[in-house]
């Protein structure tokens, strides 16, 4: 069931909004700002599992360009698309509607191009989608750099050296197979699909856009072109998020939840078929950047610095447990892939 009213977390002012203006760059961050943002991020993720980032420096035009490229890719004949289908080993490539299911009770209407390597050879060819590579690669770098800023901010809040946190995520988008980070470009087509006749209330029962799940990563950055049905589970209730033009959402993933022993719980989320005819007929675009640690990373135990309640005592036993979980992060992700892909 979709969230009951037209109200959203945003319209009720229940989403923390974090302003990244003046934070500097990932290589030259402004320390005092990074510390402050670390505390804001920690509070937001521990209380809500998400925050909206504004003044993050990623121009809307860059997002619009990749949305248009995915539209052009989706318009190619199936035979052309087939050359780029997702490779299960690298997790790179095109995922047709129905190939990736988070919830097996409804058909998930979603096209996704998942980018894990920035090599031009792995992208749609110039003659098929002319500027796919030129648009996707810089955006992937921007989202990597934004993730590196947030990792440093979180490190301060956890009392971990920022360099350590960065070192554990050093392979993001390096295309060498040592890190599972991915940039997913997503298109949710109108509901029902154009070849299935007019829209009716029952479409929400047969179809969904993205089934309920949490992400098997450190955190996810989400940019979206419209509200289009994004919901999160808070206090056991599904709640519509709402859309703040230009903002990028950050959501806690399962690995951050594990390392923080659930001080920052993983956020369950989904995208439902919106109730209004106009929103259903419009389709929705989104970019989700899943920030993963390196496959061989060992993250030190983390505890909040100045947050209440007081940090749990990390005994050697807890350290061992965290270390053990971390060593199994790669296995955890493999298991999730087996459950999700047809
Ligand atoms: O479209 C969205 O907002 C969510 C996408 C998502 O959850 C995912 O790709 O993991
Ligand atoms: Fe997700």
Automatic annotation (TrEMBL):
Keywords: Iron, Metal-binding, Oxidoreductase. Signal peptide: none annotated. It comes from the Eukaryota. SUPFAM superfamilies: Clavaminate synthase-like (SSF51197). The keyword Cytoplasm does not apply. Pfam families: 2OG-FeII_Oxy (PF03171), DIOX_N (PF14226). Residues 179-293 form the Fe2OG dioxygenase domain. Belongs to the iron/ascorbate-dependent oxidoreductase family. PANTHER family: 2-OXOGLUTARATE (2OG) AND FE(II)-DEPENDENT OXYGENASE SUPERFAMILY PROTEIN-RELATED. This is Uncharacterized protein LOC112054805. It comes from Bicyclus anynana. The gene is LOC112054805.
